[in-house]
Amino acid sequence: MIKPGRYRHFKGNEYEVIGTARHSETLEEMVVYRALYGEFGLWVRPASMWEETVERDGKTYQRFTYIGESEDSAD
Question: I need a surface site. Which of 18, 27, 52, 65 has the fewest CB within 10 A?
Fold first, then answer.
């Protein structure tokens, strides 16, 4: 289960998971998230991709790592 909160992408940027949703045609679980930099864009990504590992320069990383609650929920 992917919980709401702040995550760090393996390349270093941070994102906030708002929640999960289902694709209307395939019922695939999707992660709804917002970039915490730049224009703070709203995005979706398949949950299976969110939770996968990636290899780069001979090292294996979690694509996204949970780093804590959203700042709004910490109040």
Answer: 27
